[in-house]
Amino acid sequence: MSYTKRILNQALANNPNEPEFHQAMTEILTTLQPFVDAHPEYEQTGILERLVEPERVILFRVPWVDDAGKVQVNKGYRVQFNSAIGPYKGGLRFHPSVNLSIIKFLGFEQIFKNSLTGLPIGGGKGGANFDPKGKTDREIMAFCQSYMTELSRHIGADTDVPAGDIGVGAREVGFMYGQYKRMRNVFEGVLTGKGLTYGGSLARTEATGYGLVYLMAEMLRQHGKSFEDRTVTISGSGNVAIYATQKVQQLGGKVIALSDSGGYIYDAAGVDLAAVKEIKEVKRGRISEYLNYRPGAVYTDSQSADFGSGIWSVPCDIALPCATQNELHETDAKTLVNNGCFAVGEGANMPSTLEATEVFLRNSILFAPGKAANAGGVATSALEMSQNSARIAWSFDEVDQKLQNIMVSIYNSIAAAAKEAGSEDNFVVGANIAGFKKVATAMMQQGVI
After folding, report:
1. Catalytic residue IDs
2. Which of 184, 220, 306, 358 is most buried when burial is the number of CB atoms within 10 A of its CB?
3. How far is the C-alpha of 344 from the C-alpha of 244, rounded, in Å?
4. The pLDDT of residue 308
């Protein structure tokens, strides 16, 4: 049995009942097998055994008091997965679905994603099974302060620098940063996605969505295509989806569908982004409200009988899944292919199942996996860290240009790695090998730790 297969089997057995983590490990180690088997030094130094095991897992309770005076308790997590190339870096997710498996999968992916950026940041992830929806600002502040009271013991500007993720935006980051400062008595760049008045970076809000489109634009360009006059379907309607929509529109593409957990909208004339921003960023409402702005659009409820394959049943040239993990299944992938979609870029973390990914690769779809395509957010977070360390602030254009350069560089590195491995245009292979090589080399050079 090969080294990679043996370690994968051991890791699956050692981490029972963690399907999302299993999925991430299976995808990465299976892809890496030919490359790793050709380099016996990885087995000799136990790289894979150490790579699949987090350096530290922190689990804690988060007690807080709601507006009715009732004590609530949530589960808090931080997985510090790998610090070979820099301090742990990765977002915090506040959502009822959060569990250890999801946090470990996200942290494992983050190792490779952060490596691909070319910046000195390791892999980590955290969060809680807390739902910010329907909570008042005071309740969210109470939760964030309690969460950070414990987390503050384990993080720092040169140790672990969390950021936002699903359910954690500028409001939540602000409350957590204030509590960190209170607990540790230091003003430092420990969280990214901060407000501009206290160390945040311009272009951070736009970064993940913009970065996704920058990488896809470079991929398309090198294959004789572009976003110009193309129809684009984007799942989600949060931060990533909104700014991916904005950049696609700037590049001449037409976004025709967006979604949230309740259903999706289809607007054949092209999505009115100003309306979506008002609904989601100002009113914190549901995407169904879009029909109040554009009565000619169509809304399909996710519970309705004619939901079909959901948003992926909408014919398009380019699909950008930007909502959440495992939202795009094998049948959805087949529908996209049959409807003429020729490119897919993952704006979310692992939004395509393994079976869906296989469909895309088998049909020669230009497919950019999340660890490469959505790295713009963490890359700009690392740029925020640099600005904090130097006590300076770059202009929007400076940050945006650095982001664009990073995303083009990521595409070139994964394309080169795929070609070198004999799998040209298989960017799953390319991303995993390119991300792995840097981390593995650093681990070998630092000894068995």
Report:
1. 125
2. 220
3. 13
4. 61
Long-range pairs, 7-16, Cβ under 8 A, ≥24 = 7/48, 7/49, 7/52, 8/52, 10/49, 11/52, 11/53, 15/101, 15/104
Token pair of 375 as six digits = 């790295």
Burial, 137: exposed, middle or buried (Cβ in 10 Å; 0-12, 13-18, 19+)? exposed
Residues 6+ apart with CB under 8 A from 115: 85, 434, 435, 436, 438, 439
Mean pLDDT per 10-residue section of the chain, whose length is 449 residues: 96 97 96 95 98 98 98 98 98 97 96 97 98 96 98 98 94 98 97 97 96 98 98 96 98 97 96 97 94 96 72 97 94 97 96 96 97 96 97 98 98 98 97 97 97
Which token pair is 95?
């959502």
Using alpha carbons, select from 42, 5, 41, 45 the residue that is nearest to residue 25: 5
Superfamily for the 207-373 domain: NAD(P)-binding Rossmann-like Domain (3.40.50.720)
Cβ atoms of residues 358 and 381 within 8 Å: no
Domain with CATH 3.40.50.10860 in the chain: 54-190
The DSSP H or E segment spanning 259 is strand 254-260
